[in-house]
Design a protein that fits this description.
It contains five helices and nine strands; from the N terminus they run H-H-E-E-E-E-E-H-E-H-E-H-E-E. The chain folds into two domains: 2-120, Copper binding periplasmic protein CusF (OB fold (Dihydrolipoamide Acetyltransferase, E2P), Beta Barrel); 150-266 and 287-311, no CATH class. Helix content is 42%, strand content 20%.
Length: 311
């Protein structure tokens, strides 16, 4: 640049010269400045920003994805040679960079990167070594979802077992209710079948009581209790508990008759000796009363020396 600078001394010298001499001096200066003007017009420096896509150390070039560079380059992917090989060591693939390109103004020649600087560099992640915060959060979320799914599965299985147990319990209750209904129906049917017989039996007992009252004293509507020797005796067969209770309430307690149990252990007396000659002229036993066979009792009317059986 020093060779192209006009020395002040030349200017002062040109002013002190005679008229016409300054024109000669201006011509000399223009001749001296012409190479510098041509050099400045031949080259231009462009600045741009982009991302390093490739590095070629054998060719000494950098491929950059950049935007518009002045009026010479549109946005795109361009491979630029570097002015110095140390520029290749400053960058690596993927870096965001700011760079300067020196190119001829007329578009001839090869544009060259004269300077390059890295804007921001992302830290390299070693596979299998570092875990980012996002990865840790995702892993935690996956673990929580797996735990929730396991709990839901466990609760579902428990609920299914409870439902199965409830179904079995409900089935057992339904079976019990069905058996109870069947038993109730059987009892009702048995009671319905026994009611006519019980009512008929009650009517028979009532009629027998009335007959006994009429036989004892038909003339009096409210008979007085006779002495024990004059009262009839009602003998009830063993096992006829209800008949005994009914006759005792109607005849025994009012004093109209004596109601006793049959004390015999067997139908007739027996002996180990062989029977002798029959000396009786006729059978002294009376026929069995109808009430004994059908109703389980008989009425005996006491007299002076023997008892009359009332059929």
């Amino acid at each position: 640049m020093a060779s192209h600078v006009i020395d002040d001394r030349l200017v002062r010298y040109a002013v002190s010269m005679r008229p016409g001499a300054p024109l000669l001096l201006v011509g000399v200066v223009l001749v001296l400045l012409a190479p510098a003007v041509d050099a400045g017009a031949a080259e231009t420096t462009l600045q741009g920003e982009g991302r390093v896509v490739a590095l070629d150390r054998s060719k000494g070039s950098i491929t950059v994805e950049h935007g518009t560079l002045g009026r010479l380059f549109v946005a795109g992917l361009t491979e630029f040679p570097v002015g110095a090989t140390d520029l290749l060591e400053r960058v690596r693939i993927g870096d965001r960079v700011v760079f300067e390109v020196v190119a001829s103004a007329d578009g001839h020649g090869v544009p060259t990167i004269s300077d390059i600087e890295v804007l921001a560099r992302e830290p390299r992640s070693t596979p299998g070594v570092g875990i980012t915060l996002r990865d840790a959060g995702l892993a935690t979320l996956v673990a929580l979802l797996a735990a929730i799914a396991g709990l839901l599965g466990l609760q579902t299985r428990r609920l299914r077992r409870l439902i199965q147990g409830s179904d079995a319990m409900v089935a057992g209750l339904r079976e019990q209710l069905r058996l109870q209904r069947e038993m109730s129906s059987s009892v009702e049917a048995a009671v319905a079948a026994l009611l006519p017989a019980l009512r008929g039996y009650q009517s028979d007992v009532r009629r027998v009581g009335e007959r006994i009252q009429v036989a004892v004293d038909p003339a009096r509507s409210e008979p007085a209790a006779p002495p024990d020797t004059a009262r009839p005796i009602v003998i009830v067969r063993r096992g006829e508990t209800e008949t005994f209770r009914t006759l005792d309430e109607r005849l025994g307690k009012p004093g109209l008759a004596r109601v006793v149990w049959d004390r015999r252990r067997r139908e007739r007396r027996s002996t180990s000796r062989p029977p002798g000659a029959e000396r009786r002229r006729r059978d002294r036993r009376a026929p069995t009363p109808v009430t004994w066979e059908g109703l389980g009792y008989l009425v005996v009317q006491p007299k002076a020396r023997h008892l009359n059986v009332v059929a």
